[in-house]
Write a structure and sequence with these properties.
Length: about 160
């Protein structure tokens, strides 16, 4: 039986280098990730942190870094008590040139059967990645509210 995972594929009219920068720059993530900033030097074995409003919401370790092709890090949630007890998961970004586009595949796996974390990220990633695509292609955000990150998840 396969383990639970989240996979999202989108095509973005940009270059792999610009997309890599968007995924690894706090200045950029703050724009499309609803104010969240990524923190790391992006070297394998280095720490990773996602901060929102000055609070570390998720942390982990860089597992793979091959600019501008592939990035992976472990991802342990800290903000919501209901999710803190679940084990660290893994996020993998694969960037593939596709003519004038980049095919971005996001794999988030390592969830426990019956856990709540898969549901939470299944709502969050589409909102985040839609904002990313719009920002890179048009320079504008879609106006998705931050509450979309928690849609279907009763975070207290």
């Amino acid at each position: 039986m396969s383990k639970p995972e989240f996979v999202y594929v989108t095509y973005i009219e940009t270059t792999p280098e610009k997309l890599w920068q968007a995924l690894t720059s706090s200045e950029f993530t703050r724009q499309y990730w609803f104010g969240a900033e990524v923190r790391s030097d992006w070297k394998v074995g280095s720490p990773f942190a996602l901060t929102l409003d000055g609070e570390v919401t998720d942390s982990g370790e860089i597992l793979e870094s091959d600019p501008p092709k592939r990035l992976s890090y472990s991802f342990k949630h800290h903000k919501f008590e209901e999710l803190r007890g679940e084990p660290a998961s893994r996020v993998v970004f694969t960037l593939e040139p596709f003519g004038p586009l980049v095919r971005l595949t996001v794999l988030h796996d390592g969830f426990v059967e019956g856990g709540k974390y898969l549901g939470a990220v299944s709502n969050g990633w589409p909102a985040i990645l839609s904002q990313l695509k719009s920002l890179l292609e048009t320079g504008k955000l879609l106006g998705i509210p931050r509450a979309a990150l928690n849609k279907g998840f009763d975070a207290k």
